[in-house]
Design goal:
Helix 25 runs antiparallel to helix 26. This protein has a domain of 301 residues: Thrombin, subunit H (Beta Barrel), CATH 2.40.10. A hairpin with a 2-residue loop joins strand 2 and strand 3. The protein contains 26 helices and 21 strands. The strands form four sheets. Strands 2, 3, 4, 5, 6, 7, 8, 9, 10, 11 and 12 form an eleven-stranded antiparallel beta sheet that branches. The protein has a five-stranded antiparallel beta sheet with strand order 17-18-21-20-19. A three-stranded antiparallel beta sheet has the order 1-14-13, with no helix packed on it. It is of the alpha+beta class. The protein is globular, with a radius of gyration of 25 Å.
């Protein structure tokens, strides 16, 4: 990280490329490879967005491979006090045994087109003034609605380069998704949070789902055959997937706000929430099961945030960001035409950050809807109100092209645990009481004169929103039904919604509109100065990265490119087989018959981030040679800069997937399906 690189070179080496702009010049120069349109289309149609992660079709019959940690939320929702599919895993030996997930959606990107000119044409002359953000959102909503009406495909307008470009993405969407296989938690998450974001690693972090359409397995539009030989050291490999967010193109002012304010506050919140959830889990085995998925997600988020925060505190990284921006600003200033059009962008964004910071405590304190039923209540209140308005006047998230997805979430039949709901709401109300003044109207309406514990008890014990039929009746009854409801969570949501809308409007006019206008200016300036030689920041849309299977320097020595099942056994024995380093009973019973030299995990220089979990790793021929499940600790600073000296993607090796299915779980039928037999 200490090496200073100019922004042109640094960005050109990064890897989260949109499929309309593959890095063929670099690929041809370094590896003699060209990503042809046919090769890219096959990857595009094979890859899916699933839950909060990525996945891929691995058979002709709708079989999707992703990570166990992507599947964990659905495993927990399918579990009960008597049957824990997270701890014990799951295997459907026939298709009739596959378990239908309560609220999982799988989407496949069908097509995309540049709509930048159409969006920008709808903006007022002052693109940063009042109403400008609403005009952008209305234009995007109209484009998405027209596309959805014309094609029947889910349509989203995606902002790239922070407003430098706008693209329309069209998806096929499926909600009949069934769990087929997941290993035991001890196999999927061997090493637990201690080993998370590290390497060497020894995890079988894989899961299989099947997508159904009209009650039958989906005929996969394309699929990736499993190359059981897997990746080898030095191989060129590719990761097509859906990286969530990165902040590599943010201004120094935005990064400084994150470093000095956002990250420290987020770390404090995560520490408090994790400590509270650990306390809840200590109440008993059932409480631990109920909170398990949420707690593991929180721990993952905290460790990720800590790594990103360390990156922002690194003087070498900070110097690099400052010098990249100085170079960019100097190039703009050196061209009078560019300076006149775009030179004010940095100051505009800095002004927005100052406004945000002035009210950050209030903004973060004004929430009672982070989790569960309280969030659902606000969603119901807003759904019935927004869906009656003209599409262009609605809140973001409630446009016609988005309503199906909102309804799907609001009507989830997933189990609700009243004790956990009450506990989580109490924690949120404690934060409201701590962050806001006692006479703040939001605090008064949230607490209603009670302590956080008493208020949470009254709300959760009095609500009927745990029943999907009650939620369905409110949606069907529309504004009149919601207005007449005496459900305490609905009553509170009705009272708080105007205050939240007022706050959101202030943010739009004083922060988001300035950031959007500044981002559009910087995006256009970047194209003028550097061309389209760099990928945009991640947006949880389909991207392609590439790299080599390669070890790296670590802890005064070297980390290998791969680990094996021998290493799994050694690490377990080194910790006395105590959790989280315990071998599963199934593995121990079959260990003598296994080839322990089989590769288990490997690392590559592919550029990934959160959201890439579950992405396939493919070879030049488009065969699946691995499954991304993590990055190493050095990768976390990659949220802001990329340096392939030690930044690595961590993946399950295809040979491990094959051996596990065939020899450990006796699921040869699934392995044969993945090989097209």
């Amino acid at each position: 990280m200490a090496t200073l690189v100019t922004s042109t070179t640094a960005l050109a080496d990064e890897g989260m490329w949109t499929f309309d702009n593959p890095p063929n010049a670099q690929l041809q120069e370094r590896y003699g490879f060209t990503a042809t349109p046919a090769w890219l289309e096959r990857l595009q149609l094979s890859c899916v967005r699933i839950g909060g992660g990525s996945g891929s079709f691995v058979s002709p019959d709708g079989l999707v491979l992703t990570n166990a940690h992507v599947a964990e939320g659905q495993q927990q929702k399918l579990s009960s006090a008597d049957r824990d599919y997270v701890a014990d895993g799951f295997l459907a030996r026939t298709r009739a045994q596959e378990l239908q997930c309560p609220d999982l959606e799988v989407v496949i990107l069908q097509s995309y087109e540049d709509v930048t000119a159409r969006v920008l044409a709808a903006l007022p002359a002052d693109a940063s003034g009042p109403g400008a953000l609403a005009a952008r959102q209305a234009a995007c909503a109209a484009i998405a609605k027209a596309s959805q009406d014309a094609t029947g495909l889910q349509s989203d307008v995606v902002t790239l380069y922070h407003g430098g470009e706008y693209w329309l993405y069209r998806y096929r969407s499926f909600t009949d998704v069934r769990l087929v296989f997941a290993p035991e938690a001890d196999a999927a998450y061997f090493g637990g949070d201690d080993d998370n974001f590290t390497f060497p690693r020894h995890d079988l972090d894989m899961a299989l789902f099947r997508v159904y359409e009209k009650g039958r397995p989906l005929a996969s539009p394309a699929w990736l055959p499993l190359n059981t030989g897997g990746a080898r050291e030095g191989d060129l490999v590719f990761v097509p997937g859906h990286p969530g967010t990165t902040e590599r193109l943010l201004t120094v002012a935005q990064l400084q706000s994150m470093r000095d304010h956002t990250f420290p506050r987020a770390e404090k919140y995560l520490d408090e929430t994790i400590a509270a959830l650990e306390g809840y889990s200590a109440r008993g085995p059932e409480q631990a099961r109920q909170a398990g998925s949420l707690l593991s997600g929180m721990n993952n988020g905290r460790k990720s945030r800590q790594g990103e925060y360390r990156g922002l505190l690194d003087p070498a990284i900070w110097s690099r960001k400052e010098r990249e921006e100085a170079d960019f600003r100097a190039r703009v200033a050196g061209d009078p035409a560019l300076q006149a059009r775009y030179g004010s962008a940095w100051d505009l964004i800095a002004k927005a950050e100052q406004a945000r910071l002035a009210r950050q405590k209030e903004i973060e304190g004004r929430t009672v809807s982070r989790f569960g039923l309280a969030r659902t209540a606000l969603g119901l209140v807003r759904f019935v109100a927004e869906s009656r308005k003209p599409d262009g006047e609605r809140l973001e998230g409630y446009h016609d092209a988005q309503l199906r997805r909102q309804r799907f979430r609001l009507l989830s039949p997933a189990p609700v645990y009243p004790e956990l709901e009450q506990f989580l709401l109490e924690q949120t109300l404690k934060r409201v009481a701590r962050e806001l003044d006692p006479d703040d109207v939001f605090a008064r309406l949230s607490l209603d004169g009670m302590s956080p514990a008493d208020r949470a008890a009254a709300l959760i014990q009095g609500t009927k929103l745990a029943d999907p039929a009650v939620r369905q009746a409110l949606l069907d009854g529309g504004p009149d039904a919601v207005a007449a409801s005496t459900d305490p969570l609905i009553v509170m949501a009705r009272a708080l919604d105007p205050l939240l809308r007022e706050q959101e409007l202030w943010q739009e006019e004083n922060v988001e509109s300035l950031v959007a206008a500044g981002g559009e200016m910087l995006g256009a300036a970047r194209f003028a100065v550097y061309g389209r030689t760099a990928p945009p920041d991640a947006t949880f849309t389909l991207r392609l990265s590439y790299g080599e299977v390669k070890g790296y320097p670590s802890n005064g020595t070297r980390a290998p490119a791969m680990t094996t099942f021998h290493g799994l056994v050694d690490r377990a024995l080194s910790f006395g087989e105590k959790p989280p380093y315990a071998l599963t009973t199934r593995f121990r019973e079959r260990m003598a018959k296994l080839d322990l030299a089989t590769p288990l995990n490997f690392v590559s220089t592919c550029d990934i981030t959160g959201g890439n979990s579950g992405s396939p790793v493919v070879d030049r021929d488009g065969r699946l040679v691995g499954l991304v499940f993590d990055g190493n600790i050095e990768s976390l600073a990659g949220n802001f800069v990329f340096d392939d000296t030690a930044n690595r993607a961590v993946s399950v090796h295809a040979a491990a997937i094959a051996m596990a299915l065939r020899d450990i779980y006796e699921a040869g039928h699934l392995l044969q399906e993945m090989q097209g037999r």
